[in-house]
Amino acid sequence: MRPNLLTRSEILSTCKNAARGAGFSWGMASEAAIATLALIEAGEDGFGPLIEILNHAKGKEHPLNIEPGAPICGLTLGVYLADLGAAPKPLPQGIVGLQILTALTTELSKGAARPDAFPPEVLEFAAGVLVPESELSRRQGAGEG
Amino acid sequence: MKLRPPSTVMRLARMGAMHATRLSFMPTFLRHAKQQGWEFNQAEWEINSAGVGHACYRVDMGTRVYALVAFAHDLPDDMRSDRVIAEAWDATFALHDGIPTKQDIDRLRANVPLQEAGRVSTKELVLSRANRSGRMWGHVVDALAAGQQPDKTMVREIGYLMRTTAVYGSGKFGAADRIDIRDRPEFKSSFQVEMLTVFLIREFVLDLVEHMARMKGGDVAVPLTHEMRRMFGIGNSTGLGMAPFLVNHPALLHRWMHARETALARVLSLQHPDETKKRAVQCALITACANAETWTVQDVVQAKAVQGLRSGLAKILNNYAALSREAYPWSALLAFAENQTCLETQEQLVACLLEPYGDMIDDLADDLQFEEEALPRIDGTMSTSNLKGLIEEKFDWMLKIDFDKKSTQDRFWYYSENKYEPRLGQRFEEPGAELEFPLAIARDINMLHAALPKDGSLAEFLLKHPKFRQAAFRVQALHDLDYAEIHDNLLCETLRPVDMLRCKLSFFGATKFDPRSDRWLRIVMYQYAPLAQDLMAHEAKFADAI
């Protein structure tokens, strides 16, 4: 028992918000979160490749390029391959966040300890989904509980 | 066996009129506790004369022990707030997995009173807090301290001494994830760990009010009578934070609704119920009438519904003798209610019809969980024309809404900067709609349908149009789950989010729904339910104290 261990649901919800905050759609953000958690539970660095992908995606139009020749988004290509149930190889060079692609297209082991905290970059991206409460919303009563 | 169709059941107006049934999670918890002989006891009580300190309540289930660690605080009146942004409470709680050590208690003491600002561990399953009812607490302490029992009418009407403002489970603030405990038999049905926590909170609150009366009245003070103790439940104040749950857990929602509708269909199929059951249904209706009489609300819409319930139940009871003599009397009774009474009455009747049929339907409550991760992922090899066909076949009602009209997209759901809480905004008057939270299911599936080309694979389409990914996923994953989607537009200007809250809370087993606006409400849990001592004693009946 470690008191500060991040929980699975915290990792899923924060990473999903982070991916959405970077501009991915909610559906894609959900895939990013699932892949990040899978990497972490396999004892690998999940946040690192996620941050790479989010930095790469930030400010870009979607869908991201998955044609060879330019940096390829590992999330976009990974999701596409997983949708088709296609084998991930041979892969082109220059994939950003390759581990996320791997997590989306292969079965990873489980059971590794989860980290104690989120990297600040993930939290910054996650804050991108938040909307300040407007005066109107406050007046109408946002609701208790 | 024919179930009521989702076009009837899954409308928000009806969901917002649903009542607790014997399949609800609180009665299910009480049945399990009774059947399995769980032992409850107050293991620690270190609370001083000012009402400050901690207590520990244990439940021994034979194979496992759980403990509610409760912290009582001396909260000045001006700090008492039910808002989620509050920072102090009258009492705070954690449900611990096992028997807590002194170190655990110290660790919890440093964190649990802080709630969201603290951190619990995977040895904790639930985090919660509660505030006193301003009206009730002082009255009960004063009465008991003076050697008197509290005013029965007031207790009936209010129903609680403290109300919880959050009951956090499933991986919140460091607590164990649901996946860690879902295979334990005691938590197999939905929300059982939360129901256990609230049940133990009720025991603690009753003991605390008696303690405070003793501190005030000394030898003159008396404890609550057994009958009076059972009249107290635990209040709860719930707002928009709960609303997205039903949309985010569609397969679970389907399972809940399907179980309930299956139970109803089983009961409606009885051609000649025996006289005992006929009397029991009548008795349940009379009890419902009595409850409706003490159900007071300020909300105009709900007040009208309660009025309709009173007159509707009276109509049903007036015609009960004749209708219950027919073949398939329960079908006849429901048909009568559907023709002659409001939704609130119809749904109350459903609960009354189920009440005496535990032997026929309780099995449906035993496995009401579903992990949404178990839904199949997107099959990108499906053709876009097949997906389009699925939408037309199964989600046709969504295609009938004209989303070009301003009124159909008037609202948007978002995460507020205040503690990541879901909120509802007005799209054309407030900023932030570009960050809306994905609860616009009907609109998104409608738009997906319009955007899908005649040819090509779904994978290719989603690669070009990732914004439709969630909508496509729902169509594929949920098209066979009839009760997974709410059959209403959640962006509509006439939306009343309390309807979503009411539906979920009725599955919890809550009573006395008291909307305070269209966005939040108060309820009561476990009012009139057996106490721990009743569950451990001989026969205990859920509502026999009414």
Which SSEs are present, and which pair or pack?
The complex is a heterodimer of chains A (145) and B (546).
Chain A lengths: L7 H14 L4 H16 L5 H11 L14 E2 H11 L10 E2 L1 H8 L14 H7 L3 E2 L3 H6 L5
Parallel strand pairs in A: 1-2
Chain B lengths: L5 H4 L2 H4 L9 H11 L3 E9 L5 E8 L4 E8 L18 E7 L4 H10 L12 E9 L1 H12 L6 H7 L1 E9 L9 H4 L10 H26 L8 H6 L1 E6 L6 H4 L1 H19 L6 H19 L6 H19 L1 H4 L5 H12 L2 H12 L3 H4 L22 H11 L1 H4 L11 E6 L5 E5 L14 H11 L6 H7 L4 H10 L19 H11 L2 E5 L5 E5 L6 H5 L10
Parallel strand pairs in B: 6-7
Antiparallel strand pairs in B: 1-2, 2-3, 3-4, 4-5, 5-6, 7-11, 8-9, 10-11
Order of helices and strands of chain A: HHHEHEHHEH
Which sheet architecture does the biggest sheet of chain A show?
A: 2 strands, parallel
- Distinct helical segment count of chain B: 24
Describe the sheet with the most strands of chain B: 9 strands, mixed
- Average pLDDT of chain A, rounded to a whole number, is 88
Largest interface: A-B, 44 and 71 residues
Overall geometry of chain B: globular
Give helix % range of chain A.
40-55%
Strand content of chain B: 5-15%
Spatially, the strands of the biggest sheet of chain B line up as: 1-2-3-4-5-6-7-11-10
Mean pLDDT of chain B: 94
